[in-house]
Amino acid sequence: MKRQLSKNEKRRIASKNIKELIDFSLNKEYPLQYRKRALALAKRLSLKFNVRAKELDYYFICKKCGEPLIPGGNVSIRLNKKRLIFKCLNCGNINRFPYSKRNSGKKKSKE
Length: 111
Ligand SMILES: [Zn+2]
Fold this sequence. Notes:
This protein is an alpha+beta fold. It folds into 2 domains: 8-56; 61-105, no CATH class. The chain contains 2 helices and 3 strands. It has a 3-stranded antiparallel beta sheet, with no helix packed on it. Helix 1 (7-26) runs antiparallel to helix 2.
């Protein structure tokens, strides 16, 4: 008889798979179409099993071309008027996201 996996076990396996998929999508040796697909799969897994991965946050993927954005690689990041400005260097699309002091929690920067 097959043993049913508990919810936690499912989530643990899902998060492991998500990590592998993200690693795959960040590896530039693989063709772009597979990397995009891996990223989409990782996103679906994280939605289904309610697993968070910081790499899957909204700003990590170009909204236009779907390419994974790698800081220091194919994206330029600027701060302007309390907004994060991500410019995708593949398609030139500009993604803007607001940031505020509220989201940073109790930590204070040393500036
Ligand atoms: Zn793009």
